[in-house]
Specification:
mainly alpha, flat
């Protein structure tokens, strides 16, 4: 009888692996991020803060996915798609700033910078789709 009680007591205890104790690599990454953020200029810090605060509305992503597939996506799927969209927009904006710098212009980015950035990313194959479709379906 005592062995069953010991087994029940042992299984009801919280395992030590489930306790959230930051590992050394996590603390190192946080320290590196803090050093990086502290070295940003004020303009870069403003952009970084705006990027951290921004997000895509999950309801709109859900409607978009449902409209394209006819299947209602799960909450986790919407979260992932919102994150991917945010990263994609971030890449396009950074490439737009590069294009603006190459053209030796200043001020806010303009639509022409965004178009050129998308064109460059598309030509490099970084957007996941290209302007020239290699595999087209042929009619039988």
């Amino acid at each position: 009888m005592s062995s069953i009680k010991d087994l029940i007591a042992a299984t009801s205890e919280v395992p030590t692996s489930s306790v959230n104790v930051p590992s050394e690599t996590e603390t190192d990454e946080k320290a590196k991020l803090q050093i990086l953020v502290s070295s940003l200029t004020e303009e870069q810090l403003d952009r970084y803060e705006a990027f951290r605060r921004s997000k895509f509305p999950q309801a709109q992503i859900r409607k978009l996915v449902y409209g394209m597939t006819g299947v209602s996506p799960s909450a986790n799927c919407c979260i992932v798609l919102c994150g991917i969209a945010k990263v994609l927009v971030g890449q396009i904006v950074e490439a737009s700033f590069d294009v603006q710098e190459q053209l030796k212009e200043s001020g806010p980015i303009q639509p022409k910078h965004i178009r050129d950035a998308v064109r460059c990313l598309r030509n490099k194959g970084l957007l996941g789709f290209s302007s020239h479709r290699k595999h087209r379906l042929k009619r039988l």
